[in-house]
Structures are given as C-alpha cells and as structure tokens.
Amino acid sequence: MPGLFDPFTLKSVTLRNRVGVSPMCQYSCQDGMVDDWHLVHLGARAAGGAGLVIAEATAVEARGRISPDDAGLWKDAQVEPFARIARFLDRQGAVPGIQLAHAGWKASTAAPWKASPSGPAVGPAEGGWQPVGAGDEPFAPGHARPQALDKAGIAQVREAFQAAAARAARAGFRWLEIHAAHGYLLHSFLSPLCNRRQDEYGGTFANRTRMALETVRAVRSVWPDGLPLTVRLSCTDWVEGGWDLDQSVELAGLLKAEGVDLVDCSSGGASARASIPAGPGYQVPFAEALRRRAGIATAAVGMITQAAQADRIIRDGQADLVLLAREMLRDPHWPFRAARELGQAGTPLPRQYARAAG
Ligand SMILES: Cc1cc2nc3c(=O)[nH]c(=O)nc-3n(C[C@H](O)[C@H](O)[C@H](O)COP(=O)(O)O)c2cc1C
Hints:
Blueprint lengths: L7 E3 L2 E3 L3 E3 L14 H12 L4 E8 L11 E2 L6 H13 L3 E7 L30 E2 L13 E2 L2 H20 L4 E6 L4 H6 L14 H4 L1 H11 L8 E6 L10 H13 L4 E5 L17 H11 L2 E5 L5 H9 L5 E4 L1 H5 L3 H8 L17
Parallel strand pairs: 3-4, 3-13, 4-5, 4-6, 6-9, 7-8, 9-10, 10-11, 11-12, 12-13
Antiparallel strand pairs: 1-2
Helix pairs in contact: 1-2, 3-6, 7-8
Flavin mononucleotide (FMN) binds next to strand 4 and helix 10.
C-alpha cells in the first residue's frame, strides 16, 4: 500500500502526495468575487506542500450562497479572479480544485463573525434573500422560510451547476467537487429527514437520489473527461431514520456509474438533533466502507491532524487521500512538517525557502 507522500493518480491528474486542503468558506467575497485574500490563503497552502488545494464552497447561483459574502461562479466575470488563483496553485505544484455548492434552505445566513443574536438569517437590508429548498420548512428556528423548488426550479439549479462547472474548467481547475453534504441543497433532497416531497424527487431512495444523480450527469457532460469529478457526501445524518452509511454505499455505486471518480466522506449537517461522536478520525470508517463496498476511490476528512495518523489511513487502505481543514489553518506548512516527521522526502520546499531545508 502507498503512504501519505506517494503520488496519487486519478484520471489524467497526479497529485504529488495524498494531502489535500479541504474546502473552507472564507466569507470574504463581494458579489461572489474571490480576491487577494483567497489568492494568499489558498496559495500559502499550495506553497506549503499540499498535493491538492480545494477552493471553498462556490455558489452556482446567487441564491445558493450560504451568506452574502460567499464565493460564486454564476457569471463569467467571476472566472478570471479564480483563474489567477488556479494558475498560482498550479505553479506551486498543487492541483487546483474547487467545490461547487448550492446551500438551498441553509442559504442567506450571516458570516460567522457577523451573526446576530436574533438568529442566523440575514434579511434584505443586509443583503439577504429568500432561499429555495426541497420543501418550504425552514432548516431550523431563525432560518428563513424557503420556497419549495418545483420541477422547473430543479432543472434551473441543475443547469446552474452545469454552467458553473464549465466556468471552473475555463478557470483552469483540474479537480471538481460537487457539494452534496452538510444539509445543503443536494443533501437535503437525499435525506428523508429533510425531504418530504410527494413527487418523483421525494419518498423512495430512487426518488431522493434523483436530483443528485441528474446534477452529476449534467456536470459530467461539460467537465472534461480526463479530469476527476468528485462528490462530497454526508455519509450519515447521525439520526435514527435519516440518511445513513448503507444508503451512501448504494449512492456511491450509482455515482461511480455516472462517471464520479472519488467520494469525499463527511457527515452530518442535515439535522440539529444529530448527536455526533466527533473525535480523531471519526469519519474515516465511512471512507473505508465506501472504498471497500462501492469500489470507488475515497477521501477521508475530519479531525485528521497527526502525520502518523494520516499516513496510517493511507497505508491501511482506508482512503486514497486525506483532506485537512482546521489543521491547515493552524499550519499551512503541515505537509512539510508531516514529511519530516515521517522521515519522507515528501514534497520539496519552494526554491525560495530552500535554506530552511535540512
Ligand atoms: C472555516 C471553515 C470553513 C468550512 N467551509 C466548508 C466548505 O466550504 N465546504 C465544505 O464542504 N466544508 C467546509 N468546512 C468543513 C471542512 O471542509 C471539514 O470537512 C471539517 O472542518 C472537518 O475537517 P477538520 O477536522 O480537518 O477541520 C469548513 C470548515 C471550516 C473550519
């Protein structure tokens, strides 16, 4: 079995190691436009040695933003600022990736540092809007009441994902992740806790997975064949009667048949009632189960912070790739430090930093 610092090839793309930066919202855009902050934030982590850097949840349409400060790719003007970042990541030896998202009923909330005591929702005066959802129930108290998507609305969202994927390819991204986790729109169709629809998009497993599968098919038709298409799933809702691991395994098989190359295995987000046993590597068993039972490549994420822990996940065949989020915020050079700790040649330092080697 390979280790953390062995390359990983998926389709025509080879990562120099198996450490990726997990997508992380920065809530720092105006009108969906990424800027210098994103270049420095993502660029530092590419220079820090990660094999893959995935840009934050990027809204495929304006009403699909979590907050008014989210990134977007719903119009052509948003391509070039992302292209500048993708070029920089590439030049540092990291594969540039992006996560495309639609927040659905969890949209139109305040950035964490702007949250008001009256609740997460932002009103029209602060740039908020009415979200759309699988139904018309709010996600939780304090969230805005969504408008339930009808069939034309579902088609519109699917086309927005497709158009944004084409823009992501134009921007030079070489790794695409569709966000179908954390209670956002696609997950809210999957989960029986959130989806109470009576039409062909609700009820049975086939109906609840229809929107995700149709979206993936639309995206695959425009995303270059040679480039990896990946999906982030919440592998369980952590609630009895909710979306669970067995359904995730079954969906992973269907996604694979639609041309998805890897599933990024997260969890939770659909219900405030969830009781989540968070701890080191607590979601790794999901990556292992999907990898073994659905025969698809997986990424493990969630409280992976130690070099030996990450290396063991890869060597034991639990996942093909590890994604780090908060630990990468603490230390953008985590991959170099991990390679040193493991006594691996790992990733070379940028030549500008060569005097720090040894
Ligand atoms: C600041 C921050 C922003 C995040 N934004 C996103 C996001 O845009 N998309 C997503 O799928 N997950 C997002 N997450 C979740 C992370 O990608 C990751 O799955 C989670 O933090 C667990 O990994 P960790 O224990 O290494 O932090 C975010 C997490 C943090 C801390």
